[in-house]
Amino acid sequence: MPQMMKAAIFVEPGRIVLDEKKVPDPGPLDALVRITTTTICGTDVHILKGEYPVAKGLTIGHEPVGIIEKLGSAVEGFEEGQRVIAGAITPSGISNACLCGCHSQDGAGTKHGFKPLGGWRFGNTIDGAQAEYVLVPDAMANLAPIPDGLEDEQVLMCPDIMSTGFSGAESGAVKIGDTVAVFAQGPIGLCATAGARLMGATTIIGVDTVPARMEIARAMGADHVVDFKAVDPVEEIMRLTDGRGVDVAIEALGTQPTFEAALRVLRPGGTLSSLGVYSGDLTLPLAPFCAGLGDHTIRTTLCPGGKERMRRLMEVIASGRIDTRPLVTHRYALDDIESAYDLFSHQRDGVLKIAIQP
Amino acid sequence: MPQMMKAAIFVEPGRIVLDEKKVPDPGPLDALVRITTTTICGTDVHILKGEYPVAKGLTIGHEPVGIIEKLGSAVEGFEEGQRVIAGAITPSGISNACLCGCHSQDGAGTKHGFKPLGGWRFGNTIDGAQAEYVLVPDAMANLAPIPDGLEDEQVLMCPDIMSTGFSGAESGAVKIGDTVAVFAQGPIGLCATAGARLMGATTIIGVDTVPARMEIARAMGADHVVDFKAVDPVEEIMRLTDGRGVDVAIEALGTQPTFEAALRVLRPGGTLSSLGVYSGDLTLPLAPFCAGLGDHTIRTTLCPGGKERMRRLMEVIASGRIDTRPLVTHRYALDDIESAYDLFSHQRDGVLKIAIQP
Amino acid sequence: MPQMMKAAIFVEPGRIVLDEKKVPDPGPLDALVRITTTTICGTDVHILKGEYPVAKGLTIGHEPVGIIEKLGSAVEGFEEGQRVIAGAITPSGISNACLCGCHSQDGAGTKHGFKPLGGWRFGNTIDGAQAEYVLVPDAMANLAPIPDGLEDEQVLMCPDIMSTGFSGAESGAVKIGDTVAVFAQGPIGLCATAGARLMGATTIIGVDTVPARMEIARAMGADHVVDFKAVDPVEEIMRLTDGRGVDVAIEALGTQPTFEAALRVLRPGGTLSSLGVYSGDLTLPLAPFCAGLGDHTIRTTLCPGGKERMRRLMEVIASGRIDTRPLVTHRYALDDIESAYDLFSHQRDGVLKIAIQP
Amino acid sequence: MPQMMKAAIFVEPGRIVLDEKKVPDPGPLDALVRITTTTICGTDVHILKGEYPVAKGLTIGHEPVGIIEKLGSAVEGFEEGQRVIAGAITPSGISNACLCGCHSQDGAGTKHGFKPLGGWRFGNTIDGAQAEYVLVPDAMANLAPIPDGLEDEQVLMCPDIMSTGFSGAESGAVKIGDTVAVFAQGPIGLCATAGARLMGATTIIGVDTVPARMEIARAMGADHVVDFKAVDPVEEIMRLTDGRGVDVAIEALGTQPTFEAALRVLRPGGTLSSLGVYSGDLTLPLAPFCAGLGDHTIRTTLCPGGKERMRRLMEVIASGRIDTRPLVTHRYALDDIESAYDLFSHQRDGVLKIAIQP
């Protein structure tokens, strides 16, 4: 094992650069994982642009696929050399938040044990996965062995995209026979579409405008795809549902228009499941909100993490129910990650997700 | 039985008057109930002011306590002369909405079986309870016999105030050991306080400023009462919870400041249970909404109805767990209902609820 | 419309005969439906054998597909000539049981509003569907129009088999990534398999021994099929799950060995979802029951009914998610129903379900 | 700190003796707690009698109240000298079981992460609390500071009795207005009664025969107490509920007659919540089980643990909602614990719980 490694480091707003860093040494509960594949997330672009603040010098990235290089002294149940993933969210398991099932808001070490977004550590509060090595904290709660026969790119979406996307359907409590609309068919929206399909929705309507995404949407499970530039998506969804509206509306972009459209197509008693990261205050318009009397549920969800979640998502892949490889549209070496950021942040060339390989 | 009766009728915005109407004849599934006690709701004031539109000539009121005068030809299981109540919401039981448990959004007779607020019929889409007689539709689903030994005023809050207030705690899924804040301690907020207590919350914080309401709040179960004119309620609740915030925040007024304050005191992963009737668009401020990543739930609830709900609420009263009689601060004859509206709409004389007796 | 019709009538244990009956006249809330296709259920065989007592002279059958012939005077929202189905369970919607979501235990007309199995009326407490005509009670809650383009045999499983089978997965609260075992792959077990698949289970293990059923099991969604005569099913399931056991075990036969095996393969904290109709006391063996400390859930479910349920199931068919036509292995004219009973009750000729056409 | 301590040690069936042991040294994640008060549980008597096997030489007891003496090197967020409790169940937080909310079946270190009863370690798989000192494993997940002002005996029931008893009501999903029967009013049954009251049940029926327990039952929240030696409890409960039966039946003894009676008084669609530790196979009688068609739920629950659970239970005490001190009927020095076992195992002198103080 070398002593130095390459890592994509946040320098200042507008600049993420590949630089050298010391390979870290695992504490008692950590695991050092050699990254074999990772990827760039929309959140990383928020960081790049300075819209989401992180410490200067931090390694970015929260989607690790790799091999256990070294286990902390107190870590049991794993072996060096195992192929593993870890979730974007790495809960401690021991905080008050975790102990009541709210792992993503993990407040380990805080006074009350709850901390907003506290479970998100990689590339946020600790060094992340866009590097040759990453330290996985609370390794026993977070390392998930990759089932035999699955390649890196097959499980690359599990740490974040698939976990988040599926949670959109899960938080919407999609039931057999439901009608579901998914606003935006980027990687997370596509996985929300797949999740709704997997949970038994029978009419799934994806909304986007990029032809390639609209096409993949059908492959991922959408029964209808609405081009919001060609038609008014609210009107079109009401037409497709014959005026009934949807049981569950999933927001997967993070904007007022999509949030509001999700509410406007929701039937009374329905659930708006929100995945997007918003950048400003949101407005709940009075009429579709039924003045507060519509028995509506609005739920927001941060990507579920932990090894059990990862295990289940990899089971989905291993079972052949869903294949997320079509989401990987580009491949770059870690050495070229700055170019990958350039491509991804400008959404050029029909990019969905980029596999980064050290 | 007389052929004509007195009824409080909506004439035009600003005018609800007592006038004569024909006593209606029950259809096959209806029951004619002779009102012995009813009351005026905040919603009726919205109607009075023209803020919530109803048909001219409609009898107002949705909180009936009375005696079965005559049963429709197809109604079985009840007897004339029985003392009964019916909920403010009178679900049909047979619509698609009802069949999936969404009784308040009952769309009986509509194409898809869902209709926003469709379960609310009394004093909204059919003649209401501020009269000598009222027709209860779908009587078999809605008539609830009053247990022996309970007086009219003991059950007068069941049809709406108590059902709505309790639902604030129920939709918040209050659990043993929860900390709950209830914004506004009017009749519904007071019952939300009582509901949170009844479900096992161990720290209940009521917010209001009217001394009489603040006092009753303690009697209904509040551990702390915050005067929002004396202190900043968000700061005070954070202080009372030692910075932790609340597990469940119940909004019981219907304004942006209370809605927003409810969100601001909510811990990550918590539930904002909204009961208020809003009169304008709402804003979800970015930071307390955690930019959409706080695993929050926002639920709105319209008063649950139906005879099973009424039965359970009357059981609460009969068991002595809660006494809602202190909410009845005034009593008027039906003949004087116009004065009662005047008092109630101006919230004079410390009024909470007015018992109206024909 | 003729005045007399043919109907399969229970005469005495061992004898169900085709006889003539008067075509009934619908009461105000009923609908008269002309049967176009129906089928025989295992429960009907229990009735035939005298194991489940019904009144002599009762028309048997609870799986109607047909055309509305005549609507009761108070029935709105439907039209004569519409193609419809009704569920095996026909809830009133108005009892206390229905009003709290427990439609199958509908106690309309009883003192407390709950009655064991009370929602099951067709061929149990009122005349059933193995006839030229059937009266559908509480028609507004129970008639479900067949979507355009679906043929009778495509929706024939919806009233009972599919509703029951799916409920096995639903009551088991199957989640994405679950491992599920389904004991017995008769028609209901096959639909439980399909339901588990539809809800996101990623390892589904069907248990049976009849080759044809084992083959269809794979088509309906099983990842593994265990022949309980070739291997010990508990051992084999533990082997297939690498010693982990299953998250949800579905019992779809109604015997002690299958019930017990379901418990034996269940992981701690798992759910045993029981669909079978048992004919004797059951034993919960101490060790797999963890002496009562395994955080287990055992749930029994009676077929969900009502028009909203039927609508959703037909949506599943219309969406192409599942095709239940392979379950129809035989076709008989109503005139030959006695032969159909003979074939079905002896489970000859690989029979799964028989379509009966008047 | 002395190097040796006294501890109640299992020697062989029939013999638990007070002996000397080395004071253990905390590992990195442990905390050494000096016991100030502990108690004896019915489970300990099972161990004493050899009915539940544990290793010879093991220190018994799983209900620690004490003071942090020494923290493991990796433990953060606590201070030596803090007064704390830990639950009878001490989940790791990091196993697959824990990560999906099934903390009591914690399988940390096992292949799949689930282990029956795995969360129960004190006095079962590791040394317990009937000693001068106890090592709390996974201290960060399990140490719960005692709120100021609460004495040892006020929180002594939290680690097991109250957590288990309340879980009987919680697993029964008791709702406002429910009718609940609790079979046996020993310490756990009494807390189940209190839990049902705390969650909003309005008719609570306790069953026992010991006069002192029947009296405390009323103080803990029972509306009716049935003496099963004076009357048939099933008949009496059906009489008290006017033939309706109960919504939730809680079994808190662990015998066939109480389990069966719980089923017999359950309404269709109701929940049997089982807390008892059974010592033989159980029988589910056919008729009250509705032959498997009653939409029943049977749930077993092992005492919930972890610091968040303990925090909430102590909140219940601190709020004054419930006082469990009346359950402490006797007090013994640790030196006299053999006599305490003698008294407790023979249930002499009206004993409910014995406070043991080193």
From TrEMBL, chains A, B, C, D:
<keyword id="KW-0479">Metal-binding</keyword>
<dbReference type="Pfam" id="PF00107">
    <property type="entry name" value="ADH_zinc_N"/>
</dbReference>
<dbReference type="InterPro" id="IPR013149">
    <property type="entry name" value="ADH-like_C"/>
</dbReference>
<protein>
    <submittedName>
        <fullName>NAD(P)-dependent alcohol dehydrogenase</fullName>
    </submittedName>
</protein>
<comment type="similarity">
    <text>Belongs to the zinc-containing alcohol dehydrogenase family.</text>
</comment>
<keyword id="KW-0862">Zinc</keyword>
<feature type="domain" description="Enoyl reductase (ER)">
    <location>
        <begin position="14"/>
        <end position="352"/>
    </location>
</feature>
<dbReference type="Pfam" id="PF08240">
    <property type="entry name" value="ADH_N"/>
</dbReference>
<dbReference type="InterPro" id="IPR011032">
    <property type="entry name" value="GroES-like_sf"/>
</dbReference>
<dbReference type="GO" id="GO:0016616">
    <property type="term" value="F:oxidoreductase activity, acting on the CH-OH group of donors, NAD or NADP as acceptor"/>
</dbReference>
<dbReference type="InterPro" id="IPR013154">
    <property type="entry name" value="ADH-like_N"/>
</dbReference>
<keyword id="KW-0560">Oxidoreductase</keyword>
<dbReference type="InterPro" id="IPR020843">
    <property type="entry name" value="ER"/>
</dbReference>
<dbReference type="InterPro" id="IPR036291">
    <property type="entry name" value="NAD(P)-bd_dom_sf"/>
</dbReference>
<dbReference type="GO" id="GO:0008270">
    <property type="term" value="F:zinc ion binding"/>
</dbReference>
<dbReference type="InterPro" id="IPR002328">
    <property type="entry name" value="ADH_Zn_CS"/>
</dbReference>
